[in-house]
Amino acid sequence: MRVVVVGAGIAGLSAAHALRGRAEVTVVESGDRVGGKLRTTAFEGLDIDEGAESFLVRVPEAVRLARHVGLGHDIIHPATAAASLLISGRLRPLPPRTLLGVPTDAVGLIRSRVLSPAGLIRAAADLVLPRTTLPDDPTVGGYVGARVGRQVVERLVDPLLGGVYAGRADALSLRATVPQLTPILSENRSLLIGAYRVRARTAPADPAGTPVFASVRGGLGRFAAQVADASEAKVLLRTTVHAVDRTSRGWRVTIAGAGGELGESMIEADAVIFAVPVPVARALLTPVAPHAAAPLAAVPYASVALTTLLYRGVRLPAGSGYLVPPGEGAIVKAATFLSAKWPHLPAGTGLTVVRASVGRAGDERDLERSDVELAGVVAAELAAATGLTARPVASRVSRWDGGLPQYLPGHLDRTATARRGLPAGLALAGAGYDGVGIPACIRSGEAAAETVLRSDDTVRVGR
Questions:
Q1: What residue spans define the domains of the chain?
Q2: Taking Cα atoms as reference points, which of 89, 94, 90, 46 lies closest to residue 352?
Q3: Rounded distance, CA 400 to CA 367, Å?
């Protein structure tokens, strides 16, 4: 079987790896490297991730794949997972044992002083309020706010979702974005009781002290490159897919090298996996599968910029960093103390590395600033939040335009409709459909590989 994978992000690479030994695979990537948002580059002599910098351990896909490609001994865990919230200009500890921002530990919530007395009373009202009538797929903010109040949404849920999706709780689908909360909709009247029960069910598999996140020594760009090598696929870099057309035998993929200087050429394939951002997949699908392409128009993307700052001879507050609620009016929405979180990075150098994220869906004006201006504003906000008095000795801004998909209400239905509209031999994979985390993208790519293999079996039986 001949399969073309469009896109060499971790979803596309995972699809290629899953097809190893079962198909002849060609991966086509418009950029000059594999990995997509898994990109590690040198910054002042340190290997620093410019995109994703960790993956969840609770779900198995990323850890399993890292081991399969020979990186098992290079999996590393954060030295600290303690984080803070910036509330009224002061850092306060993130309450322990929350479920995506929903409190499950009343004592820890009170001690954190994240909520005001009025906010605490409103959250507790969830225990006595009648069941809330909600749409089938409410927004995260709509559900959480109706049960425990707006302050929980604004000070706990929104900062967490902003850090992961660059989105707003009041716009994102509950079922697609926070599936852990979905069963509570039907099983429990109280969100607090439901969240406590969900967390209690998962606690035995995630005992205290078990790392939540992991990375790979040398950076996640190395992880992506290793998956590409292990897949044994043919990888075409700086190559763009211009069209995908049906033939009597399968599919014809029209490609061209960077700038078109090499001219167009064709690849004949039995199947094609689209592991690219949704707008790119939609443009390629519209001529051959319009019923699959149409629902994809409702998947917008948000842009973000990651500013990395290097300091010498400074001391940061304890913990791995802090999150910033939108109501604080800051440009920075999250800051990670990389050198504290991953102590192997600056080992023996006396350097401190901080990375800050800028950009929220619907409010990307600050991304119009130049790199120098943006780094300066970020450094000033970091100093105000942490008490740093030193200036950074180096800075770098990494921009991800249209980098994060926004799962609006109905996202799961739209994704299912798009997939039902695909002809046999075509499949979709990646963050635009099944989750933005690395394990979710790996799972999506592997599922796409199984889909095209099944479609090939069906076609062969039909013949």
A1: 2-37+59-73+220-299+407-462, 94-205, 301-405
A2: 46
A3: 10
Which CATH code fits 94-205? 1.10.3110.10
Strands 83-87 and 321-323: parallel
pLDDT tens, position by position, 207-251: 656 788 999 999 999 999 999 999 999 999 999 999 999 999 999
Enter the pTM of the model: 0.94
Token couple for 453? 């293999």
Mean pLDDT across the chain: 93
pLDDT at 122 over 50: yes
For 2-37+59-73+220-299+407-462, which CATH superfamily applies? FAD/NAD(P)-binding domain (3.50.50.60)
Mean pLDDT (whole number) for 39-63: 94
d(C-alpha 404, C-alpha 210), whole Å: 28
Q: Is the pLDDT of residue 459 over 60?
A: no
Tokens 């992880």, residue located: 223
Q: Is 5 helix (H, G, I), strand (E, B) or coil?
A: strand
Q: What is the DSSP letter of 21?
A: T
- The beta-carbon contacts of 203-206 under 8 Å, at least 24 apart in sequence, are 205/58, 206/58
- The pairing of strands 2-6 and 83-87 is unpaired
| Helix boundaries (H) for 332-434 | 338-341, 371-386, 411-420, 431-434
pLDDT digits (tens, 9 = 90+) for 288-326: 999 999 999 999 999 999 999 999 989 999 999 999 999
CATH class name, domain 301-405: alpha beta
